Amino acid sequence: MMELAKHHGQGPLALKEMAERQGIPLKYLEQIAIVLKQFKLIRSVRGPFGGYVLTRPPEKIQILEIIEALEGPLTFVHCVRDPSSCQRVPSCAFNELWKAVSDGASKVLKSVSLADMARLDSQKKGSSSACPDEPRLSKRSRPKAARAAPQRAPASHTAGREAKGSKSSRRLHR
What we know:
Largest sheet: 2 strands, antiparallel
CATH architecture: Orthogonal Bundle
Helix content: 40-55%
């Protein structure tokens, strides 16, 4: 999405070019593109100079939209997203804490546009948008929406394991 934001208004951008710029496997990017297309954040353009473009200006795309398209609702534990999943929710102090954390994170991510992040990325890195310090994802990694079955560990009321090292935090940087 960062590459498309920086390229906005200049025509389609091929996935192969985006994968090379970001230093990620093309197959992985293809999986992400399928999901982003389903959520109408990008569209494909056919032809010899085809590729992908944003469906809206980057100023009109919130970072929260991108994360939720790829990962689902932004909650740090399952019981915040689905209170009926745990009988202790009504009396659990941690549920209130995780709800507040989730709401706060959502509010921040909703207030930041893709254009904001593209500008910040350009300021911090110059013309290159690849981040050499970021861990590379394996070829088997796929966006949550593209996986057949969720691969998350059961949520803990006290540990908040889903938040630590989440895929969303790594993808947001891309």
